[in-house]
Design brief:
With 240 residues, the chain is of the alpha/beta class. The protein has helices at residues 16-22, 27-44, 67-83, 85-90, 106-118, 135-151, 162-167, 214-225, and strands at 8-12, 52-56, 94-98, 126-130, 179-182, 201-204. The chain has one domain: Decaprenyl diphosphate synthase-like (Undecaprenyl pyrophosphate synthetase, 3-Layer(aba) Sandwich). It binds farnesyl diphosphate.
Length: 240
């Protein structure tokens, strides 16, 4: 089906720990296999017409997890940035990151900057990882930036509209997601892209993230394609 393509898919990758528990494996193994699913979905997404993929990899609240788990996730991320750049180049993937990146260890910040620079001319899938991300903080920081620009006379408060706000978010330049997938059955948004998902279609699956293979991704896309998006209007739209 080439109709109703979800051009921008965002994913809340949840359930690594529960998957590991179910399999009697250490929690951290769940994150490791979760990393493999990240690679699988990045490889698969362009085949479904997807142009933007945004992944919730580490929330600002995740810093409160046990230090061992946090450092494991940081190591996983560091390893990913060291070893997957080549594949991203080969697959024409553009690497992008959002969140309060200054919270991350400096070595990782450098690797993120290098990844973004090296892939910036790639024209395929734009893969955005959210690290140390909080949507409320993103909106708060946008307000602060706009207030500062207004105080400096660079922004006329009267001219602030929805686009101005969007342009001050970490996601400036990215379209809003068409489809938001959450794995592991929880019916909540968990402080992810609150502004950006105003009209996004939601898809929640009971599968844990380490079980979210391309086949599961295909099911989510298919479910999206059967939906009728109205953007608050009553009449069905011919095209969106
Ligand atoms: C949620 O599972 C997942 C995370 C907090 C981290 C997501 C990270 C990955 C998928 C690892 C790969 C990342 C990169 C960049 C390679 P959970 O631990 O909250 O699971 P639980 O709710 O069952 O405990």
């Amino acid at each position: 089906m080439t109709k109703n393509i979800p051009y921008h898919v965002a994913i809340i990758m949840d359930g690594n720990g529960r998957w590991a528990e179910k399999k009697n494996l250490p929690r951290l193994r769940g994150h490791e296999i979760g990393g493999e699913r990240v690679e699988e979905i990045i490889r698969a997404a362009p085949g479904y017409g997807v142009r933007y993929l945004t992944l919730y990899a580490f929330s600002k609240e995740n810093w409160q997890r046990p230090p061992k788990e946090v450092s494991f996730l940081m190591d996983l991320l560091s390893h990913y940035l060291d070893h997957k750049l080549k594949e991203m180049m080969k697959n024409n993937v553009r690497f992008n990151a959002i969140g309060r990146l200054t919270d991350l260890p400096e070595t990782i910040q450098k690797k993120i900057t290098r990844g973004m620079n090296e892939t910036k001319n790639n024209t395929g899938l734009v893969t955005t990882f959210a690290f140390s991300y909080s949507s409320r903080l993103e909106i708060t920081e946008a307000c602060r930036k706009m207030a500062l620009e207004a105080a400096q006379g660079k922004l006329n408060p009267e001219s602030i509209d929805e686009k101005t706000v969007s342009d001050h978010l970490y996601t400036a330049g990215l379209p809003d997601p068409d489809l938001l997938i959450r794995t592991s059955g929880e019916m909540r948004i968990s402080n992810f892209l609150l502004w950006q998902i105003s009209y996004t279609e939601l898809y929640v699956t009971d599968k844990y993230w380490p079980e979210f293979t391309e086949e599961e991704f295909a099911k989510a896309v298919e479910a999206y394609q059967k939906r009728e998006r109205r953007f608050g209007r009553t009449a069905p739209l011919e095209k969106v």
